[in-house]
Amino acid sequence: MKWPTWQQGAATAVVCALVVLxxxxxxPTRARSALSTTAQELSLLAGLYSIWRLARLLPLxxxxxxxxxARQIDRLQHWLHLPTELSLQHLVLRHESxxxxxxxxxxxxxxxxxxxxxxxxxxxxxxxYSRWRNALAxxxxxxxxxxxxxxxxxxxxxxxxxxxxxxxxxxSVYGPVGTGVSDQFAAMPSIHxxxxxxxxxxxxxxxxxxxxxxxxxxxxxxxxAVSATGHHWWLDGIVAVMLLGLALQxxxxxxxxxxxxxxxxxxxxxxxxxxxSGTLELGVGGARSDN
Length: 291
Fold this sequence. Notes:
The chain has helices at 6-20, 22-25, 30-55, 66-79, 85-93, 96-108, 110-124, 126-146, 165-168, 191-206, 216-228, 234-262, 271-290. By secondary structure, the chain is an all-alpha fold. It has two domains: 1-55; 63-261, no CATH class. The radius of gyration is 25 Å and the shape is elongated. Residues 176-181 and 271-291 have low confidence and may be disordered.
């Protein structure tokens, strides 16, 4: 899959930003206002995508300490009695169809699912859209910052028994180390799992259908796929979900702070209530004068 470049993302963001100005230049109509709102969101998302793509151009191709940190994570997971990626890989290697399915899911599901989720939220759950868009932006940003701490994925530690499942089936999405759309020594945390968690938890939180709970399968299958293929440790996904929780907490606190700033100070009467009280008082006074 050929990804758009950061320049293409930036150009899209600029064009959409210009479209936002249409209702201000021309006579505003409902259609133009809707176009402006949609373009504003596309501009923001295209800008975030451009930053994400640009981040991989930073000088992070060094692997210093990546393998040592990966081995520490492996020991920590054993100490925490987490299920090992090895046992999952051994299961998948015995069932080729399952292995190919998980490889396909790892390679192609995360971006289309995220785009479909954002479109669905924007079209049908506008009131909840900004919360999950903000959470997506924050969790992606936090993942990009943490990538400065180099961590090798399990598949690059064959001496511990781990297998590069994608290469085994001839389905690897990576080229040589230091090339491609993704940084191969940025296993911690998993952006795949972070984005899948945004989609699954967002649908459960915003949806109203009883079938919405089925979409939790997306984050579950994604977590299994990234571990079974050897691209991530279990802790990579756990940290990603924790970062999403932190992002949602930040969004909640910012909204409460903003609401508090808009509210009238304590002791200052509400203007609408004062006006209503005055009207009632005049009405009572008028009734008394008639008698």
